[in-house]
Design goal:
single chain; eight-stranded mixed beta sheet; globular; binds adenosine-5'-diphosphate; binds N-acetyl-L-glutamyl 5-phosphate; Acetylglutamate kinase; amino-acid biosynthesis; AcgluKinase_fam
Length: 286
């Protein structure tokens, strides 16, 4: 009961991943307009139909900021994390678990009965504690921002076992029931680690990790976990949570973590079928 997918499909390469788990993170910037998301959804279903257990974690930072703007709340970030007052949390929850997740699930389900949306709040999937930012050595209170301390994969595993595509919004729950806004890169890395995934793929709006940011001349095609760890203190902006998440995943046993441009046609398929260097920046154990 599936719709045939258009375009070439490197299915033999994907079949090598059959039965393995892949976690894909799609950021709000990489979602771009509807057509990008449509191709992304086709690729995810193609991967699922090749027998890969695929889970999606999504962000929606720009979409949250746009909604905050509409209701007259200023969006503020400290150290790449959104300052999350109770009012901001309400908006983030409404946008992430609402329109962004529903749109993504809807596009995936155009190609078959696979996608099921949930948030990290559901079935204790992501347990979080309050996270603080650090700026110039100072600890800064950024409100209801969560750091994932525990992942319960039970619900996601049941869905994957039954051939579904779990689509997880980056919200977490404290053991006291408090809901937290979790950075989506961090949520994806934690989930990939807990699922013992074969690969983590992070789709964003740059071709990978630039070696000499803000110069956009050279993208690092691969680096080991140790090389990445040494680089982390000098990284800035949106790359910090992404690369931290890749490091966490690889250190926990995920075989590879890759950051690449989700706006390139069939970026996800290319990431899973090309070796390191084929597209984006790949972090490998070591
Ligand atoms: N070394 C770097 N290499 C690439 N991008 C970088 C680097 N340092 C900072 N960035 C910034 O990080 C951004 C990606 O992070 P972000 O905007 O949070 O994306 P997403 O919405 O996909 O999570 C890039 O668009 C770029 O402006
Ligand atoms: C704490 C924190 O900053 N949470 C993020 C969650 C969404 C996210 O991470 O979205 P992207 O992947 O599109 O950046 C936010 O509120 O923007």
């Amino acid at each position: 009961m599936t719709t045939a997918l258009a375009g070439p499909g490197p299915l033999p390469a994907l079949r090598a991943l059959g039965g393995r788990t892949v976690v894909v993170k799609v950021g709000g910037n990489a979602m771009g307009d509807g057509s990008l998301l449509r191709t992304f959804a086709q690729d995810v279903v193609r991967i699922r139909e090749a027998g890969v257990r695929v889970a999606v974690v999504h962000g929606g930072g720009p979409q949250i900021s746009a909604q905050l703007d509409l209701v007259g709340i200023e969006a503020r970030f400290v150290g790449g994390l959104r300052v999350t007052t109770p009012e901001v949390l309400d908006v983030a929850r409404m946008v992430l678990a609402g329109k962004v997740q529903r749109d993504l699930v809807g596009l995936l389900n155009e190609h078959g009965p696979y996608a099921v949306g949930l948030t990290g709040e559901d079935a204790h999937t992501l347990t979080a504690v309050r996270r603080y930012a650090e700026v110039d050595g100072e600890i800064v209170d950024i409100g209801l921002v969560g750091e994932v301390t525990e992942v319960n994969t039970a619900a996601v595993d049941v869905l994957l076992d039954h051939g579904h595509i779990p689509v997880v919004s980056s919200l977490g729950r404290g053991t006291d029931g408090q809901i937290y806004n979790v950075n989506a890169d961090a949520a994806a890395g934690a989930l990939a680690a807990a699922l013992d995934a074969e690969a983590l793929v992070v789709l964003t709006d740059v071709p990978g990790l630039y070696a000499d940011w803000p110069r956009r001349e050279r993208v690092l095609d691969r680096l080991t976990a140790a090389e990445l760890e040494a680089m982390l203190p000098v990284l800035g902006g949106g790359m910090v949570p992404k690369m931290e998440s890749c490091l966490r995943a690889v250190r926990a046993g995920v075989r590879s973590a890759r950051v690449l441009d989700g706006r390139a046609p069939h970026a996800l398929l290319r990431a899973l079928t090309a070796g390191p260097g084929g597209a984006g920046t790949t972090v490998l154990p070591g």
